[in-house]
Amino acid sequence: MKIVFNTRQPDAAASLFYQEALQDMEEVSCYDQNFSAYDIALFMTYDYGVVRQVKEAHPSIKIGIIDPRSTPVLSATPYCDFLVVDGVEMEDFWRIAEKPIFKYAEYPRFLINQKSKTEKQNKDKTYIGYHGNPLHIMEGAKTLTPALTELGEKYDIELLLMVNTHAIGSELEDRYLGSLPSNVKITHAPWHMDNYNNFLARSDIGIVPNNLGCTPVRTLAIGDPKTDYCLSFKMTSNPGRIIVFGLMGIPVIADFYPSALQYLQNETGFVAHSKAGWKYCLEQLIKNKKLRETMGQKLKTLVEDKFNFDHQNKQFRIFLASLLEQ
């Protein structure tokens, strides 16, 4: 079995993570356009436009699209043979393509086997870390932010935000800044590989707000907007942000969304949705160092067992071999 990985955006985070994840598979070569020499061709989501051309020129090759992140990719799925997704959310959406699907969680490879956490600057302060899209901070304005604001009245908290604020755009800047708690110290760092270790690893607690803001409405006589839940999340939601904290041994609180509910069980982490839920979970971890250590280690163990690249690559080989036998 010979496999080739190609993408026109090799410096994109997802491309880097998947290429590094697959590097231990001796069957995989990268950036070779001689498709006739391979059994399987892997393309990132950014490259869906070339899939038809490659398939028509090399009809016997099996083509997989990795991390299909947008609906335009659907136009290429008639010409691919399988999809690689990173979460149950993406898996469910892409059942529309009626193609075999393999789940593979990507993350920065260098976080494996590193120290759980760097030395804290202030042992009396609780550092709460976030990495990801600024959108999720904004959407937490009625849940996460007021919870942090109330806790800021009792505890010394610093919020570490690894986000690219320039990506927000000037029209959303005021909304983003207004979504941050006013009585908690805020420290920003841009997304960068070095900042996982140099910045995010200082966290005592990791937060994964993920839901998009929406309000329940009465649609049936039996509904009650005061107690009903309305959950909204992106198709691209996945366990990746949880995995990063887990590799560093940092306990996590996440919004209600499928991947979080799937893995943050049995004391591997907390899930929360309401302001009261976020406040409770945060406070449990703020005031109990032992609980932070226990939950962080349990999450680390889960991540190392389930998402290590050796295990995922072994399962990926089995999946690909089954396609070649068809």
Relative strand content: 15-25%
State the order of secondary-structure elements, H for helix, E for strand. Answer: EHEEHEEHEEHHEHEHEHEHEHHH
In the predicted model, the low-confidence regions spanning at least 5 consecutive residues are: none
Distance between the termini: 14 Å
Rg over C-alpha atoms, rounded to the nearest angstrom:
21 Å
Range of helix content = 25-40%
Q: What's the CATH topology name of the largest domain?
A: Rossmann fold
Describe the protein's topology:
Blueprint: E1 3-6, H1 13-22, E2 28-30, E3 40-44, H2 51-57, E4 62-66, E5 82-85, H3 88-93, E6 101-103, E7 126-131, H4 134-139, H5 144-152, E8 157-162, H6 170-178, E9 185-189, H7 193-198, E10 205-208, H8 240-247, E11 252-255, H9 258-263, E12 270-272, H10 275-286, H11 289-306, H12 309-324
Task: Describe it.
With 326 residues, this protein is α/β, with parallel strands linked by helices. It has 2 domains: 3-107 and 307-324, Rossmann fold; 113-305, 3-Layer(aba) Sandwich (Rossmann fold), CATH 3.40.50. 35% of the residues lie in helices and 16% in strands. The protein has helices at 13-22, 51-57, 88-93, 134-139, 144-152, 170-178, 193-198, 240-247, 258-263, 275-286, 289-306, 309-324, and strands spanning 3-6, 28-30, 40-44, 62-66, 82-85, 101-103, 126-131, 157-162, 185-189, 205-208, 252-255, 270-272. The chain has a 6-stranded parallel beta sheet. Strands 9-8-7-10-11-12 form a 6-stranded parallel beta sheet, with helices on both faces. Strand 11 (252-255), helix 9 and strand 12 form a beta-alpha-beta unit. The longest helix is centred in the C-terminal third of the chain and has 18 residues, at 289-306. The radius of gyration is 21 Å and the shape is globular.
